[in-house]
Design a protein that fits this description.
- With 218 residues, the protein is an alpha/beta fold.
- It has a single domain (2-212), classed as Rossmann fold (3-Layer(aba) Sandwich).
- Helix content is 52%, strand content 17%.
- The protein is built from 9 helices and 8 strands.
- The strands form 2 sheets. Strands 2-6-1-7-8 form a 5-stranded parallel β-sheet, with helices on both faces. A 3-stranded antiparallel β-sheet has the order 3-4-5, with helices on one face.
- The longest helix has 17 residues, at 102-118.
């Protein structure tokens, strides 16, 4: 089975997707983490974020995959666990630029589709239902107000030990929405077959319960 969960930054899709996969005993594919892992490498090597050819080459030659360890799922980039490193503000600011390049997305999508062919998956991102898993059994689109998404992102960053300014985070989310919705390939958009969920006033448990009920046909 293939379950696609799309939505903008801060809508809560990653947390819900991870929990849903765990409860269904499916593999969770965090596509955002894959792009962040590549972005981290790009930043570490000082690569020009606008060099499409070089970025695609890096995507093709970087080994990015997930592993399940005793404390949960981690993302490995070229043999190194980068799970915590990819959540830095610096990576967050650059990931939309890197992921907007068509060549980068082409490479990543092939990798993501290969994962989905090998097992049942819950996959979240911006363009899963349309571009990565157009044949998904269920397609959900999670959204929330800008203010709620900004507050969630601030809490997440502070929990990870980073200082965060609400106004700056809000502006970054607005900018990221614009980039994600206007990119030439894999843009963030709502599809006719998406099941819409506004999570602004919902708890994680409520969102998870609603999705499970939809899957069960209740």
């Amino acid at each position: 089975m293939k379950i696609a969960i799309d939505g903008p930054a801060g809508a809560g899709k990653s947390t819900v997707a991870r929990r849903l996969a765990r409860e269904l005993n499916f593999t969770y594919v965090d596509t955002g983490a894959m792009y962040r892992a590549l972005t981290l490498k790009v930043l570490q090597q000082g690569i020009d974020l606008n060099d499409s050819s070089l970025l695609q080459q890096m995507a093709e030659t970087t080994d990015i995959h997930f592993e399940t360890q005793s404390d949960g799922q981690v993302i490995i980039s070229d043999g190194v666990d980068v799970t915590s490193l990819i959540r830095s503000p610096r990576v967050g600011e650059a990931v939309s630029i890197v992921s907007a390049h068509p060549g980068v997305r082409k490479v990543m999508v092939k990798l993501q589709q290969a994962m989905a062919r090998s097992c049942s998956v819950v996959m979240d991102g911006r363009d899963i239902g349309e571009y990565v898993l157009p044949d998904a059994d269920y397609k959900f689109f999670l959204t929330a107000s800008i203010e709620e998404r900004a507050q969630r992102r601030v809490r997440e960053m502070e929990m990870r030990g980073y200082r965060a300014d609400l106004d700056a985070v809000r502006e970054e989310i607005i900018k990221r929405d614009q980039i994600d919705s206007q990119r030439p390939v894999g843009a963030l958009r709502i599809l006719p077959d998406h099941i819409m969920l506004d999570t602004s006033k919902m708890t994680e448990d409520e969102v998870l319960h609603t999705i499970k009920m939809k899957i069960r046909g209740a």
